[in-house]
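Hey team,

Filing this mostly as a record. A colleague (T.K.) asked me to run one chain through the structure pipeline before their review meeting, and I want the input and output archived in the tracker in case anyone asks later how it was produced. No errors, nothing strange. Just documentation.

Input sequence:
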Amino acid sequence: SLVCQSWLVSSRMHLFRNVVLTPENLGRIASFISESPFAIPPYVKWIELRNVDSCFTRRSSTLELLADLSSTITHLNLFEAAFDTLLDLLDVVCSFPYLQFVGLDLVRLARRGTPPHQRVAIQKRVLPPFVDHISLQNSSFGGFLLWIISHVKLPRVSRFETAGVQEVDGPYFAKYLSLLGSDLKHVSFSISYGSNGHIC
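Output structure:
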């Protein structure tokens, strides 16, 4: 676009298709988008959030930024992200109506259980209908999988990947895989180490 003005739009499609947000660049990107709302958001398809501990609060700038991108994102990857509760995680995942891929890697929940007052709200959250690929890596995802299984209409994906399955989550993974049946075209997984060695 520095060479020819007519290349401006097409160059943005390539420059901003994948966006990685970190604590270091989050403020600058949020400020730029708020000042020029049509420069970046229409072109972002894949967003990755890295090391964003404590960024997901009800009034955080992170959630405001994600809301600005919600109508274009098809791929969401969360890496080393921390949430207070499962509901906070689901609010982010479910905020992208055209999502096709969900990746969660080293995602942590401060509260392991579900507060009673949030159970109804969790049941109302629905995985976006276009999700066809789920990747869960190196975390305890029993609550997340239980939420998926509890959908009135089971989310059916063709690709499911996981690594570092913990012993306590094994039944949830097995249940979801059995429910997917022939809809599942690709699956990969590895298991974690339990107190008695490798889990089978």
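Quick notes for T.K.: The radius of gyration is 18 Å. The longest helix spans residues 170-180.
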